[in-house]
Structure formats: C-alpha cells, structure tokens
Design brief:
single chain, about 350 residues, alpha/beta, Spore Coat Polysaccharide Biosynthesis Protein SpsA, Chain A, 2 domains, seven-stranded mixed β-sheet, 7 strands, binds guanosine-5'-diphosphate-alpha-D-mannose, binds manganese (II) ion
C-alpha cells in the first residue's frame, strides 16, 4: 500500500461515490485506499461508504459514535493506515484530487510535507463563495502566520500529504481540537519541516453544506492561544472560566431585573444564580465540551449534576472568602480567592463527573 487517502466527512452522503470515482481516475497505477471517517452523520454517510466498500477493497470506513471534530477524525483515520504515505482531503469535492500525484512526487523527492495551496501561483480560492468567507480566510491566514511563524502561504489548508511515519511521530503532540489539523501538525514538529506547496483551485461545493461556523472559529482562536501559552494552561479551563465570567453577568442582570419587579434580595439573588448556572451549563455543553456534548436524557442528568457541583463550589467559595476576610479584612482579595477556588473546583469536578472527560 503506497497511499491512504483520509477523508473526514460529516453529512457528505451524496459526495462519497463521486469521491471514490475521482480518486480512481486520479490515482490510476498506484496502490491506494480511501478511508472515510464519519462522525455518525445523520444523513447516513457511513452507509454510502460501506455500500461501496462491500465490492471495493480500496474503500474503508471508520464510523465514530459520540464524537465530533474534523481534526480528531483525521487523526483516527491516519492512525488506521499502514501505507507509506497519508493524504488528507475534504469529503465534499472542493479539493482537487488530481494534485495528489504531484504531492506524492514532491515527497518522494525529499519533502517532509506537501500542502495543497490556494495562495501560490496557479492556486485559486474562488470556491470559497461569499466575500465574508474570503475575508475570514485571509484574516485567519495572516493571524496564523504572525502568531506562529509558520512559513506557509495556506496554513489553513485541509489538503496535504506526508509520510505516515512522520504523522505518527507527531500525533502525541497534537491538540487534536477543531478544524486546523495542518497547522496543528506544523506547530507540533520540534524541527522545521521541509514543506512543498502544490497549487490547486478550491472548487465550489456541489452537494451538502459547510460545517464551518462561529464555534469552529472560536476553536481556531483556542488553538492559537494554546500555542502562545505553550500548553501551560488547559484550553478547556480557559473556556470554562470565560463561561463562568459570563455567568456572573447573567446572575447580576437577572438579580437586578427581579429586584425591579419587587422581589426581596435573597429571592432575586437565588433566581439570578440558578439561571446563571443553567446558562453556564448550556454554554459549556456546546462550547467547552462540544466534542462530548450531552444530549437528551443525559443532558438533563448532566444539568442536575452540574447544579449540584456548582452549588458545592459556591459554598466553598463563600466559606473561604469569609475566612480570609475575617483574617485580613480585604474584601476584594478574599472574594477573588474564594472565586478562584470555586472555579477550579467547578472545572475539575464537572469535567470528570458531568462530562466524563478521560
Ligand atoms: N468526521 C468529521 N467530523 N468530518 C467533519 C467534521 C466533523 O466534525 N466537520 C467537518 N467535517 C468534514 C466535512 O464533511 C468536509 O468533508 C470537510 O470536513 C471540510 O468541512 P467543510 O464543512 O466542507 O469545511 P469548509 O469547506 O468550510 O472548510 C474547508 O476549507 C477551509 C479553508 O477555507 C476545510 O478544508 C478547512 O479545513 C479549510 O481550512
Ligand atoms: Mn468544504
């Protein structure tokens, strides 16, 4: 086996057969396989892949249940390969599969990494569609280049190839979060990689729709932040603390509203706290723990647990603040220390108990 082509897919049912056909003609003469990694898409993408795999041994499918994420899917697909080379290509036909052979040639000639680029001579990003997407893309590229010093024209590309052995070497150092697996790989390498850029024309999408949304962009910001902090503070903790800070605002707002409606202070503060905790649970469930999101009955159980955990956190917070206040007399310092203990407790306990992060 020379080449494994890893294809992350989410709701790409209609694109599976065209992808296999396109690879079949682009990779003629090579020993290749394609690995569709589907996160249990509701449109049954895995069934489309398995249907082809039944009669074509070059087609494989990994169906992941209870997990979401482009980078994670790519990592899992690449680790299931035994080929000499691994390529990653989007499953929506937006990348140009005829560029795979030139990528392979570049690697055979000594490059560590071949990257499909829309921003070198001969490349084109017309397929991005809206002007907003174009601006987001160029902006993101600038930020990535500035902050990381990564010297490639298209660090956001999801289209690239490298030796499987190199991928495996770098895997343990990847954050594995979000959309930007290429940037993640480049930044994970302890020594600079010899990168060759292969121009390609980004095609418009034919079927299905893009999964890039505000949360994906937030994850991208997180990836960059993680690199700046060099992994000293867990990203999840930062997200959790930001959500907590937002919760304080919600708490105060609701409390004020209830006071205006004539509630006494204790009742107003209690309803404010309760609503803030529910809002925080929702935000954490969608943002901080997006990859482990609790749904339906498990979400209700999670909410109940979260309320219990945060209530204990609040008791610890108030107890510690009170003790420090009596000792030092500085309300601000005592309050900050109490809040810090509270947020660390809430984070550590809810991660294991509510979202069961391993
Ligand atoms: N398994 C899995 N899980 N696959 C996913 C997930 C997920 O959570 N999210 C997206 N995918 C798959 C899609 O099905 C598609 O095959 C591929 O990843 C890219 O996703 P799109 O939703 O098509 O993204 P895009 O076209 O907006 O973004 C592409 O272009 C960007 C550059 O503008 C991607 O290639 C990005 O990586 C690239 O940065
Ligand atoms: Mn796409």
């Amino acid at each position: 086996m020379t080449l494994s082509v890893v294809v992350p897919c989410y709701n790409e049912h209609a694109n599976v057969a065209p992808m296999v056909a396109a690879l079949d003609s682009a990779l003629a003469g090579l020993a290749w396989e394609v690995i569709f990694v589907d996160d249990d898409s509701p449109d049954g993408t895995h069934m489309a892949a398995r249907a082809l795999a039944q009669s074509d041994a070059r087609v494989r499918c990994i169906r992941r249940i209870g997990r979401r994420g482009l980078s994670g899917a790519v990592i899992e697909g690449a680790l299931s390969s035994s080929a000499a080379y691994v390529a990653v290509i989007d499953g929506d036909m937006q990348h140009d599969e005829t560029r795979l052979k030139p990528m392979l040639e570049a690697l055979a000639a000594g490059a560590d990494l071949a990257v499909g680029s829309r921003h070198v001579a001969g490349g084109d990003s017309a397929g991005l569609g809206s002007p907003l997407r174009v601006r987001l893309s160029t902006g993101g590229i600038r930020v990535a280049q500035l902050l990381t010093g990564a010297n490639i024209s298209d660090p956001m590309s999801g289209f690239f190839m490298l030796r499987r052995a190199l991928f495996e070497q770098l895997t343990g150092r990847l954050t594995g979060q979000g959309f930007k697996i290429l940037l993640d790989l480049v930044l994970a390498s302890p020594k600079p990689l010899n990168i060759v850029e292969i121009p390609y024309k980004f095609r418009p999408r034919q079927a299905g729709e893009s999964k890039l949304d505000a949360l994906v962009l937030a994850q991208f910001a997180g990836l960059l932040l993680d690199k700046i902090l060099r992994g000293t503070v867990p990203l999840r903790f930062i997200a959790f603390a930001l959500v907590g800070a937002f919760g304080v605002v919600v708490n105060l707002l609701v409390m004020q509203l209830a006071r205006r409606a004539g509630w006494d202070f204790t009742s107003a503060q209690s309803i404010g706290t309760l609503i803030a905790m529910i809002a925080n649970f929702q935000l954490n469930n969608h943002l901080t723990y997006r990859a482990q999101r609790l749904r339906k009955a498990r979400a209700w159980r999670g909410l109940a647990l979260f309320l219990a955990v945060c209530s204990l956190g609040a008791i610890a917070n108030i107890g510690i603040a009170k003790a420090l206040y009596i000792e030092n007399g500085s309300g601000l310092l005592a309050g900050a220390a109490g809040a810090a203990v509270g947020v660390v407790w809430n984070y550590a306990v809810s991660a294991t108990l509510v979202w069961r992060v391993k």
